[in-house]
Amino acid sequence: MMTENITVTITTPSDREAVVTREFNAPAALVFAAVTKADLIKRWYGAAGFLDSCESDPRVGGSWRFAFTVGAKQMAKYGVYNEIDAPRRFVRTERFEGWDEYEALLTVELVERNGKTTMTQSFLFPTKELRDQVMKTGLTPQGMSAFYERLDVLLASQP
Amino acid sequence: MYNHMVMKDTALNATFAALADPTRRAILARLASGEATVNQLAEPFDMSQPAISKHLKVLERAGLIVAGQDAQRRPRKLEAKPLAEAIDWIENYRKHWEAAFARLDEVLEELKVEKQSDKKDRKRKK
Hints:
Chain A has helices spanning 28-36, 38-44, 128-137, 146-156, and strands at residues 9-11, 17-24, 51-56, 63-70, 73-85, 89-96, 99-113, 116-124. Chain A is α+β, with helices and mostly antiparallel strands. In chain A, strand 7 (99-113) and strand 8 (116-124) form a beta hairpin. Chain A is globular and about 45 Å long. Classes of the chains: A alpha+beta, B mainly alpha.
């Protein structure tokens, strides 16, 4: 496979953080556009046709919202861009509709070298428990499936 | 390496399939506090011993429990390793991003081509 040597690195620098790093074979401007422009996000975020709608206004104070359906349930992630420094960096808040305790601050940094770009996504969560929950499920709506919830219940019952 | 991955996936599927049933999860929860015989495990459930034995077999096949040495009682014990593998958080999280980024790679390649043809169009117009 062509992408075999390109790997995602995950680190947890503190109890409330998860950092995801990956190199892309494209200049920073393209990567920045692909992760902030609604029409481009739609093309890669989730499998084809996964997002019911996608809005993104990458300006300071601008909002974003991704809506999708899991089973029969409609869900949405949303938030506000706090910082924009294209094509190097942006910071945005992340919340889930109907999941009040969930709140994350996402800082994305792009470093271009020789036409390739390293993207670092740092998620800061309010608590360690929430971060662990997010990492367990992969934070995909699919990942939030009953399987992992059941697993949580089971593990909570362990000494 | 590919075979190893497939084997690992199959093992995980067995783990998740075993965990999908509430009775089996209750059995595991019970075993988390110490080993127990089939009779002891059947007690809290409104279920026949053969029915419980069936669940135990599924859990055994998934490697989640093992039968103890005592030939008469054969107490069942929890095996923690498959559970730990099933909740290898960082691995799950990494897989999620790997899948998302593989799609992003494709979009970036498409964008490069689109940009290239934009330039050509502009040149032609000039």
